[in-house]
Amino acid sequence: MIHRIHEMVWGPWLLVLFLGTGIFFTVKSGFFQIRKFPFWWKHTIGSIQEDEGEEKGEVTKFQTACTALAATIGTGNIAGVATALTAGGPGAIFWMWVSAGIGMMTGYAETMLGIRYRYRDRNGAWICGPMVYLERGLKLPVLGMIYSFLCIMVSLGMGSMVQSNSIAETLEYSFGIPPVPIGIVLTGTVLLVVLGGIARIAFVSERLIPISAGAYMLFSMVVIMSCYDQIPYIFQCIFQDAFRPVSAFSGVAGYQISKSLQYGISRGVFSNEAGLGSMAVLHGAAEDTTPEQQGMWAMFEVFFDTILICTMTAFVILCMTEGDAAGSGYDGAALTAFCFSKRLGLLGEYVVSGAMLIFAFATIIAWYYLGRQAAIYLAERLKERRSLYILQRILRGKVYTMLYLGAVFLGCLAKLETVWEFSDIWNGLMALPNIIAIIFLMKEVTVPENAEEWALKYTRR
């Protein structure tokens, strides 16, 4: 039953919706992500030195970007890519590129709207995300509440249990550590970080993500360049497989194309989260910024997560399996570890294990903030309903934190096939109100066409 619901939610209609939304904003902006690449690069990753000079105590733009990357760079970049290649063939990586390329504008739109409509709660903290622009922009507070509920469910499933399960399985497989002590140590570490709020989460993310992602990319390049002569053949496999009409045609594409497209786009969305609205929540804490700049940071995150990290994982796998990932006999993280170890030996397994651990931990702390923001918003909307007073107190108090930590611990012990499917269902449903909002608020989504004017406007803030 759950599997059938999962297939319904993540059917072709949802992939078309993701693609259609990204294409719409890409065309509307005049292919801004390509045409203005030097501009948005300069005002995102190229502005780090300026960002470092901001006052202490503030959450900087670079920190919010690292927190957003912490939520997106996770098991999908290692296990998800491997699964896409074994199930959808080499062509899946092409459609992952397509998903990321147009998803950059979807991420821009939702993040820009989030910053435009954000507000401070009674404690002075920013509340930001699709639930806010659904209520204040689209005037549909009920949809905002639905989005918040779905976001909470995703945080307790994919954001915590799935990630902690990956950590426990990795440590047990690599070092033989039992799940219970892993769960205790991991839950305690997460507690120490999240008790410090967004400031500590951003601080930890700023230290973890650049170092871990940089190390993973370095070792990936070592493996790829060790068989550089295969790179032209790998590109050939990717493009041929992406458009190969196998057997009977179905509409305009063959079965193999359908599989490549489905797995490429769905894994791309799972990895970079463009269209889910999560980036809009995570960017809400940034100070001294503009909606346009935070939108461009969201574009950079999608680019970095999928175009760079996922592509490197895919090329390592395809190079080591000579373009036939499905014939290796492995899948998921085991396939990635197998391919790294073929070239780097035991060090290769440690590279994948270390990356899985750090990426998954970073995702856990980032998704706590996502779920907590949604819980605070939902509690505020429920306070006027006396019949739901207890639920409101639960969401506003420390109960959500305890539930989240309990999910982290339980994830280390449980088998999560059902949780994976439920999390995917919540993910897909969460995208619907967000995409509805950014489509109906499309007139408010603008890109900085005049680079000089926009730069001057920003420096005067």
TrEMBL record:
**According to Swiss-Prot or TrEMBL, what is its membrane topology?**
Multi-pass membrane protein
Q: InterPro entries from the entry?
A: Na/Ala_symport
Query: Which residue ranges does UniProt annotate as crossing the membrane?
Result: 12-34, 92-113, 140-162, 182-203, 215-235, 297-318, 350-370
Keywords assigned by UniProt, alphabetized:
Cell membrane, Membrane, Symport, Transmembrane, Transmembrane helix, Transport
Where are the coiled-coil regions?
A: none
Predominant cellular place of this UniProt entry's protein: membrane
Q: Where in the cell is it found?
A: Cell membrane
Per the UniProt record, one Pfam family is Na_Ala_symp
According to its UniProt record, which protein family does this protein belong to?
Belongs to the alanine or glycine:cation symporter (AGCS) (TC 2.A.25) family.
Q: What is this protein called?
A: Alanine or glycine:cation symporter, AGCS family
**Organism for this UniProt entry:** Lacrimispora sphenoides JCM 1415
